[in-house]
What does this fold into?
Amino acid sequence: MVLITQSGAETLSIGSPAPDFKDLPATDGKTYSLSSFQDAKVLVVSFTCNHCPYAQAYEDRFIALAKEFAPRGVAFAAINPNDAAGYPADGFDKMVERAQEKAFPFPYLRDESQAVAKAYGAVCTPHLFVFDGARKLAYEGRIDDNWKKPDQVKSQDLRHAIEDLLAGKPVRVPNTNPMGCSIKWK
It folds into this structure.
């Protein structure tokens, strides 16, 4: 099932199974597949990149949420699908630098073929997808409602989705409009 977003891209709809991915290289020197996260109660996937000002503005909030919720069985993964030929700051070597500089507490994966981003229907960076324990999509959208000013956030959408799932409840607002730079397709 897919949802047609404002941009016209086909994005997974709530209740859809997580599209599988295999052997994506990560900045930690390992490769990851969807099955790498099989033990997580909740899986948060962020399509992001290095160069986008929205992704940069949200980065510390995403890191903080990963640190807070990891002990409760929530896995986080960041996936960079951008065309590195046109955007060299999003190349794998720069991803490794960024992950080390910011001490990412989650794997930062490279989707060189862009097949994973297309399968999920990611439209921008960052674009968040949250899956329950059965790997059904429970939330899709943004981290929160104020990318520029963290101190003025009124709706912590990603946090609420995670908390709802951990409490065994349906996500109170399952879709929000993601805010970010468009994915740089090849």
The first strand starts at residue 2 and ends at 4. The CA atoms of residues 159 and 171 lie 10 Å apart. The radius of gyration is 15 Å. Confidence is low (pLDDT under 50) at residues 1-8.
